[in-house]
Amino acid sequence: MADQPTPPAADYSAASAWVSNLGQELFDQFDTYEKARRMTEERWIDDLYRYRGRYTDEQVRRMDPKRSSVFLRQTRLKVEIFTRLMLQVMLGNNDQTWTLEPDQNPELPAPDLQQIIDSLTEKLNGQSPQQADIDAAVKELANIRARNMERTILSQLDGDSRKMWTGILRQAIHAGNLYGTGIVKGPLVTEKVGTKYRPVIKTEMQEHPDPHNPGQVIQIPVQVQTWEADKTTEYAPYITRSSHWGFYPDPSANNADELQGMYERHIKTRMEMLDLHAREDFDSEAIMGVLEAYPNGTAQAWKTYETELRAIGEDENTYMRVQREKRYEVLEFWGLVTAEELRNAGAPGISEDATGDMWAQVWLMGPVVIKAVLSHLNVRKHPYYFYYFDKDESSFWGEGIAQLSKDPQDILNSATRIMLDNAAICAGPQVELNLDLLEMPNNEDALAVTPFKAWLRVGMGQDAMAAAVKPMTFDSHIQEVNLIRELGDQLMDDISGIPRVDTGDERVGQAAQTATGLSMLMSRSNSMNREQLLRFDDEVQRPLITELVCWNMEFNPDPSIKGSFSIKARGVAGVQAREVRAQQLMQFWQAVAPDPQLRSMVDVNELLRQIAINNEVSEGIVYEKDVYAQIQKQQNQTSGSAVLQQISPVMQKMADAIQQLQKQVQQLKGAASQQPDQDASQGELALKDKQISGQLALQNKKIAGELGIKQALAVGKLQGDRQDAGAMSPDLAGQGDGGMSAMPGSM
Question: Is the domain of 368 the same as that of 481?
Fold first, then answer.
């Protein structure tokens, strides 16, 4: 690549009134860090050329302009495919790449534990609960709080559309796969200003007709509900992605644990600086002093790597003429600073007797300090987490796919260019012309070879046997060169660790022709890629989510999310563990479902929830225990009421039948009293009475039998209301044994 001129050093002499010793010291240190990173920048530029499928200016100058200059973009293919594979494994069917689980033996504050004991005592009608019941209730509450903490952190990760976790995840992984290092930053704290509406009842005077004076109106007070807006301000953590181009680490460090200082360079507009000026945690006077001293900005000159980046995507003749106007260079420093320097810079919370080095965050505009505070983080004192595609101990920075596959990419490009050049030479006719023996008409090009062309010969004598036009042939070496090209392609697979099968290429040999062979290839591919996935889980996700949990435990006022949790990453190890756990849960359920006694010993609600989670189904489809108990109670009450409603017509029918028979008996007695032959009448009456009494007895027996069945069903349904409403529903519980064993009142 072409040598770029070193940009001139920024002149901050006009803001000397705001310069402090700490600011000047850190600003000079940044210059050292910047120079130490220069060689790494050149490697990143080379990586980007390969990703974009372009040769550097130096490479183009060495090439013959009449030869092929093709560039096969295999580097981009490998980077994109591997990034998609990682995201597919980590995200699965949803966007959550981690889960929270309570500790094995969760502990609760004394008031929460006492509340659980009081609740259990009330359910047991004043009896003291067993320790096993208390432990189960504590575990259930810990699980609920773990899910609440998950939801809270998920809302914080995706609270800003510009800082969506899945987008940050892709950018960091893509940068790590291409350049070797991806950087995730957080948690940082932002101030959220919003609006909430609350209902308000107001009294308004309205005009109504006067009932005592027609045509007149009177004022009557009426209560009206309206909504009032309240401005809300809250602090919330967020995650972002830092570009490796703007990150300058301690050059003596080889890993994140050895860092004693690091800078992140920001380019901000004047409006963005005015936003910082309005914040309470920044020094508004110092910011305004620099803005007034440099109204056209302090970042007009481009850094060396910036000019190289712009040259890749723009015309060389235009990018150098573009100048930044009214933009300011701001440095964000995280590292060790002495207590005395922090006190002098106005950092809050530094006692007079504090000594030694402290982790701090310092913002600079050149040598001017515009913010100095102590680090608010717990797990790691700086907010940067690094994903490496390939890392060794020789450098802080890692190597990506572009650098690792550099030589195979060059072999592939060289062989392809040779093959195309050789094919071009062999494609058309080539002839040797003896111009001394040829007579060319005026204005005819002797070097042009066209169909049906006539060559006019003039040579005689000893030249009679010499050929004036002699065809020439060149050997084709396409097959031999293609073997070299295929070698470069194979080396690209081997060195990058991303085989051809991952790219969807069907030309993977005999092994992929069967399901077993293809499965073996995919297994080999996953084993080679597993290290990167595990590294991302260990070095980025787990410590980052742990830091978010710590922030919420310390600063979030919501008591329903408090607890002691462990983070489970859902990378390659998490996916494998989740699949195995899902199978084990289903096997366990199939084993206990047929036996009612075993089912009664299982927390079915939690079992269903775990099955849903491990199958990547939203756990929201499983009711909480309290909600499910109320639903069961309502269903039991509704079922019992329905049976009683069915009994009522039967009882009414029985009463009507008895009343009808009694009416017939009365009619017979009345008719008999009017007969002259009393003896005959009495005999006939006795016979009729006996017949009616028999009918009445049969009718009563029939109705009583029907009523007994209905009552039995009603009692069975109503007894279900007294059972534990948190148990499994009868229909679901009885699936293992025909659906009858758990049915209340079954015969």
Answer: no
